[in-house]
Amino acid sequence: MDGLGELRGKYLAAVAGAADEAALEEVRLAALGKKGEIALKMRELGGMTPEERQVAGPRLNGLRDEVEGALKARKAALADAALDERLKAEWLDVTLPGRRRGQGTVHPVSQVTEEVTAIFADMGFAVAEGPQIESDWYNFDALNIPPEHPARQEHDTFFMARAPGDDRPPHVLRTHTSPVQIRAMAAQGAPIRVIAPGRVYRMDMDQTHTPMFHQVEGLAIDRDISMAQLKWVLEEFCRAYFEVTQVELRFRASHFPFTEPSAEVDIRCSWEGGQLKIGEGASWLEILGSGMVHPKVLSAAGVDPTEWQGFAFGMGIDRIAMLKYGIPDLRAFFESDLRWLRHYGFAALDMPTVSGGLSR
Ligand code: PHE
After folding, report:
1. Could you tell me if residue 232 is left (phi over 0), alpha (psi between -120 and 50 degrees) or otherwise beta?
2. Which of 22, 28, 99, 360 is the most core-located residue (most Cβ within 10 A)?
3. In a shared domain, residues 188 and 254
């Protein structure tokens, strides 16, 4: 068998000259691929006499092994070189001083959540949490909103996708923080005093509505809790939150399936000169929904309604943030405009406390 020496020289040189992995692969195919030159030579072995084959076989195998070995070595060398390149390009001097990017600020929603939490913590409310993707049962049924109840329509719910053929009720993006009432009572039983701040979702978008917004739920259950305590707690809250000495609340009869009786609560205010003032004036601003927890809701959460009773309320965090800090458009809350964040943001290390001041 002739020309093996030539083939050897040709392919070892080609391997050595391949500049990258793609070029190397081309060399491999030309030599050892199905129609590669060395592969074709190996096929010729079949037509040889045993004596010829005894000589040519080992030589061909040797050649193939040698080219294969060279390919492998070159591949490893190319990979090493590429890594070296990267290390050279991506090195970082960790001893350099940090680059100033200006001052970050705390978002008004975070600030107000902290303020609200501090005020209610002061009154003995712990913080409870629940998932944002909620089951139909927690978001609706357990709150006395059965299927076909008209309140379901009012919630403009986002539904999660179901697998084809799955006819169970789909999970939803929770439309309010009220399902956390159920979760907290089921987990802790009564008596209980919790608030539950968090994100909620409804299909709605205008100057005062965004598809995601924030609520804080309040829940107090004991043996003899009444509307009177609800009123006191909310007045205390408003005085502390709006940082005014005088507030006046108005309870307006309303309806929620999960409370009975139910009340929407307005706060007295004035809009003189376009400036909102809380606690004085002739206008009223709705700030929350509330009521006495419905016996069916207690039962759904495993709390005996013949022994326990109490109040619940739900308040829009973004809404009370707009009111306190004079922010006119809710949509701007979620646009991540740095200029807006700098203007309305809060210093990062000022933790709101009731005794130390909430917003100063
Ligand atoms: N979940 C109600 C809403 O989103 C608010 C609410 C909470 C009302 C608790 C009463 C009691 O509108």
Report:
1. alpha
2. 28
3. yes
